[in-house]
Amino acid sequence: MDVDDATLIEDLARPYRAGTAMRVFIGRGAAAVPVLVEGLQHPDAEARYQCCRLLDRLLTADAMQPLLKMLDDPDARVRVSALHSLSCDRCKTDACLPTDGPLLKKAIQLLDADPDAHVRAMAIEAVGRSAHIEPVAEAAIVRSMSTDPSPAVRKKARWYAPGGKIHERSKGRHHRQASRTGAGIARP
């Protein structure tokens, strides 16, 4: 039985139906992206959150701008999920995410001022992707390391700051990231 797109988006907001709806969207692959992008405007935060999670796996260039807008969502879980979708290469099979431009600027703003510690912690990952090539990214992480009100966020910032274990481990990747632009997501 085929279920229409609007019903599937509604199902994402209901825990007892979300799993089935997610499997349907994943099965559709990139063809599901326009529906999920539209779902980012759903009035229910749970539906927006699940759309961000799905776009993490199905990210295309068409979803980048709508996901960037989700970084201003009133729900912290949605902001965390959007940040993850825009900054985690591990979850993608054929995307290469940008490390500069609007994402970096917004991630630094969230790192400096978001009221939710989980959002700030995820922002460290987004900012940390640029720490080797962008002085403003490194400065934001160092600032967070010493001034963030959350001990957990300060600890994570130490990992991404110069000398930290993630900063040291990711040194070799900065050459590949330096050639990326804010516009593309396709792997070379």
Distance between the termini: 39 Å
N-to-C series of helices and strands: HHHHHHHHHHHH
CATH architecture of the largest domain: Alpha Horseshoe
Structural class: mainly alpha
Largest sheet: none
Rg over C-alpha atoms, rounded to the nearest angstrom: 17 Å
| Number of helical segments with 4 or more residues | 12
The low-confidence runs, each spanning 5 or more residues with pLDDT under 50, are 174-184
Q: What is the strand tally?
A: 0
Task: Tell me the CATH topology of the largest domain.
Answer: Leucine-rich Repeat Variant
Helix content: 55-70%
Q: How many domains, in number, for the residues?
A: 2
Shape: elongated
On the 0 to 100 scale, the average pLDDT is: 88
Task: Describe, in plain words, how this protein is organized in 3D.
There is one protein chain. This protein has twelve helices and no strands. With 188 residues, the chain is mostly helical. The protein has two domains: 83 residues, Alpha Horseshoe (Leucine-rich Repeat Variant); 78 residues. The longest helix has 14 residues. The chain is elongated and about 55 Å long.
